[in-house]
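USER: Fancy drafting a protein?

ASSISTANT:
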Amino acid sequence: MRQLFVGMLQVALSAFGGGLSAWSQRIVVEERRWLSNEEFLTGLTVARLFPGPNQINMAVYVGTFFHGLRGALVALAGMLLLPFTLLMVLGLAYFSFHSLPAIDRVLAGVVAAAAGMALSMGFKILGEYRRDPVALLLAAATLVAMEGFHVRLVPLVLVAGPLAMAWYWPRAGASRLPKP
């Protein structure tokens, strides 16, 4: 339980400024090896389907995966207690000094780093699915719908979600996922 708390705290503190999914994947899958990449992607998908912040939902998923309700509560505490306190202190500092031009430059740098981490996570996921043309097609169609046609997230999820679930639904003796 202590390792779970410290691991989720490490995720939360590593990701100040953004890129939480990338840090979560790096710590949970690559460093601590708590989940396989496939288990992590499943958890991230479930986390994104539920209301609320994705990484809070992901912490609940990881905690529940190992220790049920107690694990979920410990993982939530790791994700929230210290980071929330730091966020409040930083917020107070920002409102005291937000008129300084240097603050805007620092925040612009943090945003650029967060965007790079999000791209890194995308390329890691791409490696998992590069031999699955349907997954690539779904990802490309989603990107085009959102960026090219400005389709809003909820209608897109309501259409693409059931299509993806129907395609990947487990069938007796058949697997739609490519073999590694």
Notes: The mean pLDDT is 85. The helical segments are 2-14, 20-31, 37-49, 54-97, 101-129, 133-148, 153-168.
